[in-house]
Amino acid sequence: MFGIFSKKKERPTEPEIQQVSPQERRIYVLDFDRTITILHTGAIAYGNELAPVFIQKNVKNGFTDFVNKVVNKGHGIYIASYSDDANADLVEEEAVSGHDLIKLYMDEVFGKDQILFTAPRKNGAGEIISAGNIIAHNSQDFKQHHLDIIVQKEDLDQENPADMKRIYLLEDDEEVVRFFMGKGCTLIVPFSASRSADTAATKTLFTSYMPESFIA
Questions:
Q1: Averaged over 120-125, what is the pLDDT?
Q2: Are the CB atoms for 13 and 23 separated by under 8 Å?
Q3: Which tens digits make up the pLDDT trace of 19-52?
Q4: Spatial separation of the C-alpha atoms in residues 129 and 122, rounded to whole Å
Q5: CA terminus-to-terminus distance, the chain
Q6: pLDDT confidence bin for 122, thresholds 50/70/90
Q7: How buried is 104 (Cβ within 10 angstroms: 0-12 exposed, 13-18 middle, 19+ buried)?
Q8: Which residue from 1, 45, 162, 191 has the fewest beta carbons nearer than 10 Å?
Q9: Geometric angle at alpha carbon 120, from 116 and 201, rounded to 5°
Q10: Which residues have CB under 8 Å from 121's CB, separation 6+?
């Protein structure tokens, strides 16, 4: 048969991941609630909030494109959240929080077999034995805990200004932004701490406020 009905549907080819030197490789660190999501999850979700349709609507437009650009350019990416695994025990209903909640969101927007975002591996006692690039812990230390894990995994030195400058932060908490600035990290949205945090919380963050040069 001729015509359009005879053509087989071709699968798009995946873009080749570029190779960058260790000095050029950037480490993108993104907050979760109100930075990736539109509505704050309250660090816990259950019932209809776990439905695929809710999750899809609660992830900001342009987030997946942003992540794919970062990864295809050869850079690293992490999600650093105060959401905590223990939050799921705070309600009687079946609930998801912490690493499981963020992983659920990432599996929904990138596909069940996605490997872009991984949770830590735990032993039989529930202790983390190997960190992933989803870091979820209510440390309330301006995310120093999260930063410690990242620099260890990436073999960076927190006392080396060149290393810290390679960490690119996207975060809606002004105090966390200020803390990372003090560490010498780069703001993805290059404003003052307050403006950068406010911008990170906007619904149109990834479609209107993301400087293209920050994914170079």
A1: 78
A2: no
A3: 888 888 999 999 999 999 999 999 999 999 999 9
A4: 5
A5: 46
A6: confident
A7: middle
A8: 1
A9: 60
A10: 128, 129, 130, 132
Q: 126 falls in which pLDDT band (50, 70, 90)?
A: low
**Residue entry with tokens 């480490």:** 27
**How buried is residue 168: exposed, middle or buried, by Cβ count under 10 Å (0-12/13-18/19+)?**
buried
Full 3-state SS string of the chain: CCCHHHCCCCCCCCCCCCCCCCCCCCEEEECCCCCCECCCCCCEEEHHHHCHHHHHHHECCCHHHHHHHHHHCCCEEEEEECCCHHHHHHCCCCEEEHHHHHHHHHHHHHCCCCCCCCCCEECCCCCEEECCCEEECCCCCCCHHHHHHHHHHHCCCCCCHHHHHCEEEECCCHHHHHHHHHCCCEECCCCCHHHHHHHHCCCCHHHHCCCHHHHC
The per-residue pLDDT for range 190-206, each reduced to its tens digit, is 889 999 999 999 999 99
Query: pTM of the prediction?
Result: 0.89
pLDDT (0 to 100) of residue 215: 75
Nearest to 43 by CA among 91, 78, 77: 91
pLDDT value at 55 more than 80:
yes
